[in-house]
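Input sequence (309 aa), recorded before submission:
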Amino acid sequence: MDYSKGQRHFSLSLMLLGGLFFIGGSSILGVGVNAFVPRSSCLSSKSIQTATAIAASNKPIVVTLTREDGKNTKLRRKIEENTQLMEQIDILEMPCIAHADGPDYERLSSTLLSERWDFVAVTSPEAAKVLASAWDAVRDNPLSVVAVGKATEKSLKDSKIPVSFVPSIATAKTLAKELNPVHETKKTSVLYPASAKAKKTLQVDLMARGFDVTRLNTYDTVTATWGDEEKESSRRVEVACFASPSAVEGWLKNTEGNTDVFAACIGITSATACREHGWDEKQIFFPEAPGLEGWIDAIQDATEASRNT
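Predicted structure, token format:
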């Protein structure tokens, strides 16, 4: 056997093995392939690009949950039940909003007792929580309560508040359209305890149909304050999950206007807020009917779109 020839074959094999080792190692260490492959390597640029693509495709997509502190548990649990989705993502919790008493909160109990309201309209789980804090005033002689959607209905029922009506689609516009008046000769009265930042859709649309609506701004939604650690973590985020326009605004304020992430929204209201704040339409995902199940689908779609970018 020609020793010099065998040595050349041996050296070449070591070079190829070393090149493959460093490519595999780079995907583990998260370091660029070109930093480890010698310029004299026999590996082609196409092979290097393929290895880089494989490494990138196996990298988890970072998804953040943005509801207020303590309110992300239900969504996180639902995501964790989805084995296929969990294999593709890393989850961060980065609350973008917090809640505080609104200017009309102190008037809620007395207003509940002030007259026999035909309906009390509740349009979010947080509004349900606020109503529950004052419900003892009328618990023995309860009023008729309508909820915007299933999540709000559940929050009310958990507080032992009966719900008389839920619209077919969980939006204020649909609630205003589908709620039937109860009187023919006088206006149907509605008490609307709301967030100070809630849009006027419900009250305007109901009043246009002849309802008499009294709105109380019983709570306020404010932007959560992030420290340096949260701001640094936000740079890793590729998909942000939004359940309200306030969460969208909180994200933008804390990230200096970052609209590059994919937005997975619980419904059209949050999606519209993203659109109005400059997100690319192709980066906004939301279900036709707001709800937890559809939200999971939106997160899956946003994750897939992020991976294919």
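Checked by second reader. The chain has 13 helices and ten strands.
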